[in-house]
Each structure stands twice: as C-alpha cells, then as structure tokens.
Write a structure and sequence with these properties.
Order of helices and strands: HH
Largest sheet: none
Radius of gyration: 23 Å
Helix content: over 70%
Oligomer: single chain
Structural class: mainly alpha
Number of helices: 2
Strand content: under 5%
C-alpha cells in the first residue's frame, strides 16, 4: 500500500513548473492591460460619436 505522507515528503516540484507559472502570470498582466486599453478606446469612441 502507498504511504501518502511518505510520498509527500519526497515530493519536489519541477523547475519547469516555476518557469511556466512566471510566464503565465506575466501574460495575465499583459492581458489585463490589453483589455483596459480596449475598453478605454471604446469608451472614447462612443463619446466622440455622441458629439
């Protein structure tokens, strides 16, 4: 039978995972900035069309 507590003690995260996490987090920030820019531009365009 597997001793899960013992297996967890042996566990070491993969270095690749850390790298992937950093890449994803940096992309999230870029995505948020892109969305805010898009929304801002749309709001400006709508205001100009009303005038």
């Amino acid at each position: 039978m597997i001793d899960f507590k013992e297996e967890l003690k042996k566990f070491k995260p993969s270095l690749e995972i850390d790298s992937i996490e950093e890449t994803i987090k940096s992309n999230d920030i870029k995505d948020i900035i892109d969305l805010l820019t898009y929304i801002s531009k749309n709001i400006e365009d709508q205001q100009q069309n009303k005038e």
